[in-house]
Amino acid sequence: MEWWMQFCHLLLGGPKLKEGLGGPDPLDYVSMYRNVGSPSANIPEHWHYISFGLSDLYGDSRVHEFTGTDGPSGFGFELTFRLKRETGESAPPTWPAELMQGLARYVFQSGPIMTVPDPTPRSEGAGEVEQMPEFWLWTCRPKNTFCSGDHVSWHSPLDNSESRIQHMLLTEDPQMQPVQTPFGVVTFLQIVGVCTEELHAAQQWNGQGILELLRMVPIAGGPWLITDMRRGETIFEIDPHLQERVDKGIETDGSNLSGVSAKCAWDDLSRPPEDDEDSRSICIGTQPRRLSGKDTEQIRETLRRGLEINSKPVLPPINPQRQNGLTHDRAPSRKDSLESDSSTAIIPHELIRTRQLESVHLKFNQESGALIPLCLRGRLLHGRHFTYKSITGDMAITFVSTGVEGAFATEEHPYAAHGPWLQILLTEEFVEKMLEDLEDLTSPEEFKLPKEYSWPEKKLKVSILPDVVFDSPLH
C-alpha cells in the first residue's frame, strides 16, 4: 500500500507471551505510527495504532481455529485507533495499546452470550467490556466480535485523565482496507472516542448516524474520526442543530439498541407473597431461580434469529438488499419478529409451562430505568422489542409491541412468563401513556430514589430503586 510509506514506524508494544499461548494479554502487539495527516482536508497530524492478534497470525490452530482462506481470519478483524498528536509530542502515548488489550480481552474471554447492541441495517452490534460496573449492552451473537457502528460504554476517561472522552464507537478505518491473508480475511475497525452525550445519542438512535455527525465536525473527529482527548465540548454543544438531526432520526428510524444487561427484577403480584413455589422474581429465598439450558438457548435463538444482521435484517424482517456490503431495511411496514422468518417458528421449551400473569411489578436501578423511555419511544413505537437481562440474577424482561411475532405475551394476556423470562406486551396507546408518565426519567439530576410508577387499570407497577437493593443477596 503506497500510503503506508508516509508513516514512520515508531514502536511495537506487546506482551512477551500472548494470552492464547499462556500469557497475560490477548494481543501479540500493537503497532504505533505517526501519520502526517492532510491540513487541506481537515485531517490533523496524529498517531495511528494497529492491533495484531485478533486475526490469525499463525495458522496452526494454537490461538484461532483455521476455517479456510475464504472465511474470517481469527475473529476476522483487528482494531485501530487514531489519536491527535499534541504539539511537541515526539513519541506516541502507550495508553491506547492498553485500551486495545482490554477490548481484545473481552473478545477472547467472553462467553457466547454477552453484551452487544442490536445490529442495525447498517452494522452489527457492539460489545461491552468487563470494566463496566453498571449495565452492559446486550443481545446475542455466536462470538463477541465488534463491527462498524458498535458502541462501547467505558464510563471512564480513555486515558485515565479528566477528559470528557469516556466511551467509544467503532467504524471502518478510513485507510486500512480489508486484507486477504493466507489464513482468511481481515478487516480493520477503528476506535473513536466520544463523550457520554454522544454515546447516549448512539444508543437512542444508532452508531452509524452519530459517526456521520462526528465526521461533519472537524474538532470532534473530522473525516478520519481522529480522537482528541482534550476536546471539551460535545458535538451538540458545538452545533446545537445536530440534536435536531438525532431527534428526527429517532422518530424516523427508531433505535438500534435491542436490549441491555441491567440491574433489574420482576415480581408476579397476582401470586400471594407466601406462594413462591414457582415465583420467578430473582433472589427469592437463598438462591436465585435459574434459566434452564433450553430456556437460555431459546432466548439466544430468538434474539439471534430475529436480530443477527448476517442472516436477517434488524427489524422488520424482509429480504435484505445489500449495499456496500451492509444490509439495509427497505420495508418498514413488515412486522418485527422474535422468531426466524422461515416457515417453522421456534417453539419455546415446555411451552405448556408458560404462565399468564394478571399483575406485574418491575424493578430497575436508576441507570437501567433511564432507558425505559428509549425502550418505549425508540423500539416499541416502531414495532420492535427490547430486553433487559439481569446481571444480578438469571432472568430477563422483554418488552414487545403488538407488531412483534413469535412472542408468548399476547394482547389478551399481555404479561406472560416462561420460567424467569418475562414478556410484557404494550399497546401503542399504553406506550404513549407511559411515556407521558415517565417523562421525569429523562432528568436524572432531579431524580430521588426510590421512585414508583403505577398503572392500576393495567395492573402494572414500575419501581426505580437504589443499586444497593440489587447488590444485596436478598431483595
UniProtKB/TrEMBL annotation:
Pfam families: SUFU, SUFU_C. GO terms for biological process: negative regulation of smoothened signaling pathway; negative regulation of transcription by RNA polymerase II; signal transduction. Keywords: Acetylation, Cytoplasm, Developmental protein, Isopeptide bond, Nucleus, Phosphoprotein, Ubl conjugation. It is found in: Cytoplasm; Nucleus. Residues 23-112, 144-231 form the Suppressor of fused-like domain. Its main location: cytoplasm. It comes from the Eukaryota. Residues 327-338 have a biased composition (Basic and acidic residues). Coiled coil: none annotated. Residues 244-464 form the Suppressor of fused C-terminal domain. Belongs to the SUFU family. PANTHER family: SUPPRESSOR OF FUSED (PTHR10928), SUPPRESSOR OF FUSED HOMOLOG (PTHR10928:SF2). Negative regulator in the hedgehog signaling pathway. Down-regulates GLI1-mediated transactivation of target genes. Part of a corepressor complex that acts on DNA-bound GLI1. May also act by linking GLI1 to BTRC and thereby targeting GLI1 to degradation by the proteasome. Sequesters GLI1, GLI2 and GLI3 in the cytoplasm, this effect is overcome by binding of STK36 to both SUFU and a GLI protein. Negative regulator of beta-catenin signaling. Regulates the formation of either the repressor form (GLI3R) or the activator form (GLI3A) of the full-length form of GLI3 (GLI3FL). This is Suppressor of fused homolog.
